[in-house]
Specification:
Blueprint: E1 2-6, H1 11-22, E2 26-31, H2 35-42, E3 46-49, E4 65-68, H3 81-102, E5 108-114, H4 141-155, E6 159-165, E7 167-169, H5 173-184, E8 190-192, E9 198-199, E10 201-203, H6 204-214, E11 220-225, E12 231-232, H7 233-244, E13 250-252, H8 254-261, H9 265-269, H10 277-283, H11 292-300
Parallel strand pairs: 1-2, 1-4, 2-3, 4-5, 5-6, 6-11, 7-10, 8-13
Antiparallel strand pairs: 9-12
Length: about 325
Amino acid sequence: MKVLVTGGTGFVGGGAIRALRQRGHEVLTLARESRAARELAASGVRVVHGDLSADHVPAAREVDAIVHCAMAPFKGLRVSRAEQRRIAELDLDWSLRLLRAGAGAASTFVFSSGIWVYGDTGESFADESSTPRPFRIVESKVATEQKVAEEARRLGYRSVIVLRIGTVYGPTGSFEKFFLQPMRAGKRVRWFGSGLQHTSLVHVDDVGQAYALAVEKNEYATYNIVDDEPVPMRTYMGYLAEQLGAPAPGGLPAWLASLVTGALGEPLTHGQKVSNAKARRELGWRPAFPTYREGLRHLATPATPVLAPAAPA
């Protein structure tokens, strides 16, 4: 298949491109001129210069499937209500613009969502049938998922897959900035709150495999993309510090999270246990890093080769 990936120079989009190419798909990506775009082009990816604010996205008419990983970045660490609204409006606008650009050519659209739509799950596991109770920062995300599916049906798309992705970690991106770099420098990393709140993690390479499987589906469906074992924040951060020989992480008061990060404070201080059973059963997804232990050990010894699990025929 020929696949257009948005956000291909980013952390998650880069993982999608690697996995799609591994499965033999031809990949295009929409990107502004940058070092990351030049590196993608040098690796054999066709880079179409542009962005989603343009009136036309002609590359969408050249492909069989569109994988929409791009998201507008927050301006600064503290997320205000106005900033939250701005991001939500861009999320919907960019998604509908892409759908309309590809109508009549592309038959599959993969939309990136996240498990924050479930809110605090307490001690229960959320699955795709659970009623969303989103954290405030993503309060419009479920409505955007629905509007994307409705517009896709109206335009004649054969398949729309919504991936609700967990907390993504890996060797680059924000995980490197906030965890790997300071720990490797011998600094003590901190969490907000008790650290007992559970997190449903997923390695970026496993997210990429989910996108690669999703473009091959012929259905309207939603899948949670998380690893097998939700883990308390203090447990996985402590494990990573141990693997890297860094000082043991510590906590900061929960109230400080909202003061420092605004709307981001809620998901940082509340827990989520999310099930991947449907993705394993129906998408055929098999994470190479089934728990945080395998993934964090791999990050601590990045030269270790990893073979993606063979996908079902």
